[in-house]
Amino acid sequence: MSDFNGDVKYIATISQKNNKLDTKVYKLDGSDVVEISAKLIPGKDELYSRSKGLLEVEILSKKHVAIVGLGSFGSQIAIELAKAGVGVFSLFDFDRVELHNIGRHSCTLKDLGRLKTDAIEEAILGKNPYAQVNKYAINIATQKDVFCDVSKNVDLVICATDNNDSRFVIASALHKYQRIGIFGRAITRAAGGDVFRYKPGGPCYGCLIGSRIIDSRDEEVSSEEAGRRSGAIPAYASAEDVNAIVQVGLSVDIEPICNLMLKLALLELSKGMQSGISSLEEDLKYDAYIWANRRDHNFSNWHPFYKSGPKQTILKWYGITIPKDEHCAICSEIPTLDTGLKLNHPMYAEYADIDFHLDDN
Ligand SMILES: [Zn+2]
């Protein structure tokens, strides 16, 4: 190989050593031969040859997705979007990989103790070496300005956090900057899950909560720390109480929820491109979706199972159209976001301590 001037020559050797590819590159500088560091990066055409026709990889490579929360949901979604060819990521999570995460997380034992942002950056680059990854090891509920600054410029936000404080910050920013967002979560004891899609001009996450169509408090508590943060575990809880409250689903219970979040994300990122995935648009037209995972959960309060709704069937998605809430603290005219008003609608009584104010950016 020669450099751009055609002067200095390089020699590359690729061999197999201990079942691994071993790449070495030597620089021939006059009579000197110096080994230099090198990394094999496959061509984009080879990387995405199997996605042709289904996804517009070239266009996706310019799309910027923010992912908030890199737990079992966010980590999987980040890696799948990298596989699909998404090119720019902004990752938000202040946690580190812990032992109790490993069973459901995309990270492995070698990542123990690392910041999730660092571990997932590596996993993304392992799938898409061309990706640009921006990392923010912060809590967006306390550093709203940092999140707002990033969300202004993204094509889509994935909300995969485990608490309403951060969901409302995301919902407020999406409304303010008119960005698309996909929210997803699991319901207590893997009974099911729900996914919500915000499209600019449409009903927002605040409208969803206000509608009472889903019960946002009926939520999976995935760790003692998350339970204490959300208030699901009271300060005086005994060890047995804590164990009874922290009951998570299996990785396979999370899979279908991540899958729908990803389909909706890719559909939104591919809008107007006439790619194969666009054919899903006709079917995936709802604002929100409920996934019923097990029959033994009491779904009776869930729309569309309420009263004479369709007979519930497990392992099925139910699509829901959400009305815009005229009292919505986030998207209605009054109260407006920028006045920093707290929620005063009775629907929001349990969220009264959440401050919705976003600084003007
Ligand atoms: Zn709203």
Main sheet: strand order:
6-5-4-7-8-9-10-11
Question: What oligomeric state do the depicted chains represent?
Answer: single chain
Shape: globular
How would you sum up the major sheet?
8 strands, mixed
Strand content: 15-25%
Q: Which terms would index this structure?
A:
361 residues; Rossmann fold; eight-stranded mixed beta sheet; 10 helices; binds zinc ion
How would you sum up this structure, described in words?
- With about 350 residues, the chain is α/β, with parallel strands linked by helices.
- It has two domains: about 10-40, no CATH class; about 55-350, NAD(P)-binding Rossmann-like Domain (Rossmann fold, 3-Layer(aba) Sandwich).
- The chain has ten helices and eleven strands.
- The chain has helices at about 45, 55-60, 70-85, 115-125, 145-150, 165-175, 205-210, 225-230, 240-245, 250-270; strands spanning about 10-15, 20-30, 30-35, 65-70, 90, 130-135, 155-160, 180-185, 190-200, 290, 315-320.
- The strands form two sheets. Strands 6-5-4-7-8-9-10-11 form an eight-stranded mixed sheet, with helices on both faces. It has a three-stranded antiparallel sheet with strand order 1-2-3, with no helix packed on it.
- A hairpin with a 2-residue loop joins strand 1 (about 10-15) and strand 2.
- The model is unreliable at about 335-360 (pLDDT under 50).
- It binds zinc ion.
- Zinc ion binds near residues 203, 206, 207, 325 and 331.
